[in-house]
Amino acid sequence: MSCRSCGLWEHATQTVFGEGNADIEVILVGEQPGDKEDLAGHPFVGPAGKVLDRALLSAGINREKVYVTNLVKHFKSVQRGKWRIHKKPNAEEIAACRPWLDAEISLIQPRVVVCLGASAAKVLIGRDYRVTQQRGEMLRSEVAEFITATVHPSSILRAPDGDSRRLAMQEFIEDLKSIARHLPASALIAKSPDRVSE
Ligand code: SF4
Question: Is the minimum distance from the CB of 9 to ligand 1 under 6 angstroms?
């Protein structure tokens, strides 16, 4: 909580740690806490987190058996009027925060690491990785037994209209379903609803 290894702490409300139980098989890694997460002090509790919750449920993955975290633990933003707008952390900030992510992964030792979005994929899989072309591919990795990537749930919220939002959600769920096939039964829910509401 007192980390000052980069400048992001200065304008953030608080540190937003990863969350989940220790006996977890899968870690989802996003980019950074958003506005709501910064205020609440918990990861993935804002609109993107709600999308993630619904997609996990539809894919049959037990949300209680998922650890969620981010590349950096402080919110980076620019002020536009009364709004704080998300700003991408730079390479130095991500590198400064990497020891915290490494510590989370090494403590939990998950079977699968899932990168949510290009930022996490480029850091944890490789700079040449393209989420748009390679999403859902399960790769062997030094980070965990398996590593893969899909889109960040916030990208679904940015879809221009209802139809594209529904399609993006369905594709996200399909990625999570293929991830679920690499998880033990203890990480899954017995039955998942087929219908996904926007
Ligand atoms: S973003 Fe990470 S490295 Fe930077 S101050 Fe926060 S916890 Fe420390």
Answer: yes
Is the minimum distance from the CB of 72 to ligand 1 under 6 angstroms? yes
Considering the entire predicted model, what is its pTM? 0.93
Q: How far is the CA of 170 from the centre of ligand 1 (A)?
A: 34
| 72 Cα to the center of ligand 1, angstroms | 6
- What span, in angstroms and rounded, lies between the C-alpha atoms of 95 and 76? 15
pLDDT in tens, 88-145: 999 999 999 999 999 999 999 999 999 999 999 999 999 999 999 999 999 999 999 9
- Give how far Cα 89 sits from Cα of 68, 109, 193, Å: 18, 26, 36
Pocket flag, ligand 1, residue 97 (CB < 6 Å): yes
Tell me the CA–centroid distance for residue 151 and ligand 1, in Å: 24
Give the domains, in start order, of the chain with CATH numbers: 7-179 (3.40.470.10)
Burial class (CB in 10 A: 0-12, 13-18, 19+), 113: buried
53 burial via Cβ count (<10 Å: 0-12, 13-18, 19+): middle
Per-residue pLDDT tens digits for 55-69: 999 999 999 999 999
